[in-house]
Amino acid sequence: MIARMLALLLTVLAGPAQADSLATLERFYSNTRTLAGRFTQTVSDANGTVTETSSGQFAIQRPGRFRWDYQAPYEQTIVADGRELWVYEPDLDQVTVRPIDADNADAPGLLLSGAAFPAELFDVTREKDGWLRLIPKQKDGGLGAVRLKLAGDSVQALQLEDGLGQTTRIELLDQQRNGALPAARFSFQPPPGVDVIRALPQPPTGGES
Question: Which of 125, 147, 144, 134 is nearest to 9 (CA)?
C-alpha cells in the first residue's frame, strides 16, 4: 500500500497516483445515473474469520437515492429518498429514520449515490492490486478505511473497515447500468403497526456539540 511505502517514493508518486485515482472515481460518477443488481456481503473479524454473510438486491439513482434489500439470511430494507435514510427491520417491527448529511457518506449506498465523489471527506490512493483506498480525513468517525474495486468506470466491490478491525466486503453482481428505475422504488412507507423511531441529527465532529 502507498501508505507503507518509503517516504521518498511517496514524495515522488503520491500526487500523480491520487490524481489518477480521483479521475477513475469521477468517471464512475459522471457516467452512471442509475445502477441496479444483486449483492453479496461478508463480514469478517480482526482475525479474518467470517462472522456473517448476507445477500439481496440493490438499486441506486443518483443523486441521493438508493435501496438496499437484504433477503438472506434475514430481511432488512434500507432506503435513501434524497432527504432521509430509512432502515426497516421486519423482525423487530421497527423503522429507524434519520436525515441524510455529509457525515453519512461512508455508508456504501450513500457513497455511491452521491451527486459527485465527496473528495473533501477522503484521501484516495491506488493500490497495486487495482483497488482504490479511501482514507477518511476525519479520524474520529469510527471508520478505518473504504476500498473500492473498479473495472473501467464501474464499481465491482466495496470493502469497509471499522476502528475495531472488522471488515465488511460487498460484491455488486449482475449490474444493470443507466436503466429506468421507478420512483416508487426510492420511497418508503412504514407498514401499519410498526414502530417508527426518528433519530436526531448527529452533532458536528471535531467541534462543539
Answer: 125
DSSP state of 199: P
Q: Are 41 and 55 in contact (CB under 8 A)?
A: yes
Cell for 100?
441524510
Euclidean distance between CA atoms 107 and 143, whole angstroms = 10
For residue range 92-105, list pLDDT tens digits in order.
999 999 888 655 55
Nearest by Cα to 108 from 66, 69, 139: 66
Q: What is the pLDDT of residues 29-46, one digit of tens each?
A: 888 999 999 999 999 999
SS3 11: helix
Cell of 139: 479520524
**Using an 8 Å Cβ cutoff, are 35 and 175 in contact?**
yes
Cα angle value 110/123/30 (rounded, 5°): 50
The domain 17-176 having CATH identifier 2.50.20.10: the answer here is yes
Quick check: 80 and 91 in contact, CB under 8 A? no
Q: Is the pLDDT of residue 48 over 50?
A: yes
Please say whether the beta carbons of 170 and 158 come within 8 A: yes
CA angle 30, 35, 41 (to 5 degrees): 120
pLDDT in tens, 169-185: 999 999 999 999 999 99
